[in-house]
Amino acid sequence: MCIYWHPPEHQLARPAAVTFGLERLEELDLATLVADRDVYIQDRGDLASFNKLSDDEIIVPGSPPFFSPITRRTEILLDAVNYDLQPRFPRYIYAFEPLLRAIEASSPGFNLFEATEMVSNASNLRKLFHIFQNRRRMVERYDLEWRRGVLFLSKWTDDPSLNSSMGHGAGFEKATCRYAESDSPLLHRSASHHRVVRYSFASLELIVQSEVDAHYCACNHTPAPAPLPTPKHPRRRSSTSPRTLKPPSLSSSPSIFAALALDDPGESPTFAASHPPTTTTLKPTVLKKLRIHRLGRDVPSHCLLEVKTHRAGMQTRGFAPEAQLYFSRRALLYTAAHRAGVFVPEGVVVDKGRDLGVWEGESQAVLGRMGAFLGLLRRRAGEMAAEGRERLSLVCESDGLGGPGVKAVLYVGQGGRLVPGDI
């Protein structure tokens, strides 16, 4: 009997499944790609938040659980064999319907198709960053859908390794990120909390969804977020020439980096966050085909926390939270190290806002190349949509040698649908 854990069969089968059943269209020309210059995220704004509840239900605005650091030695099982974890994650017919319905409910005056050029999530952008960084070999597939001038870029919705974990992270989050007893049973039953923000990146106007692990603060949060006003100006269409932007000032920029200080970041042993306030519950409503439960509270972005785990003494190339924090527009980070699944109470909540500003400057070469690629991808997707191909698959691959060894190929395939027909 082997004492070591082995990856499940679906993870071993993933490399062969990436291009199975796809018809190759073209390889994008990355050799002549001219990197954008002065690539900084600007004009950030919150749009919506929601919790995933079931295959046809979400909670708006929802709220994330509260983070309580461990106070004693704690042993956590491997996620792959931890049967106390979420047995099944919600799967939506249209991958971006929760995002779209949450925006409709939270920001009714916001016209996505007039103010946006691309919709994606922070995890996709993080993976693309690491592909163009090219420090390790990676193969990633994405589903694309063009709708009314907007490119929707999703993770591969049929990925056999989707929602699987090979570490202890999900188990650690379950042990430390919890709702209060006074919170709605629907929140307790929900699978995850998500935030939707908009910002300018390189030459594109983006809407980005990201999953939130928890919140950690001593704030009194208001019941629900206020709607954003209708944009006064149409969106800026990207062109073949990159925009030149000035670096944001940490003291005056409206970005998250300008206001990310808590009175106490959690490093003091006397710091104690307030008990989450009682949830305000409203009557559930039905918008289109997705049932929306109107309950939750507004938790400002500077209170949201990213929780990361890793093996002690192994700050590997894979453990790099900066890109995830950057594209999510968050800065609070808690890292927990373990030895064979045993965690000790050594971690602290750290505000990485200033560090992320430095990281952004140091990563300009990769961000510039990634920004130029997204512009090229959107142009080609728009041209193919004009020919009748509105749904595509994208496979990106890096050779891990640190040079220009990155490939991006477009395919025709039957990936998951991303946008409902009535949008």
UniProtKB/TrEMBL annotation:
Compositional bias of type Low complexity: which residue ranges?
A: 239-252
Annotated segments matching region Disordered? 223-252
Top-level lineage group: Eukaryota
What protein is this chain from? Uncharacterized protein
Q: Which organism is it from?
A: Lasiosphaeria hispida
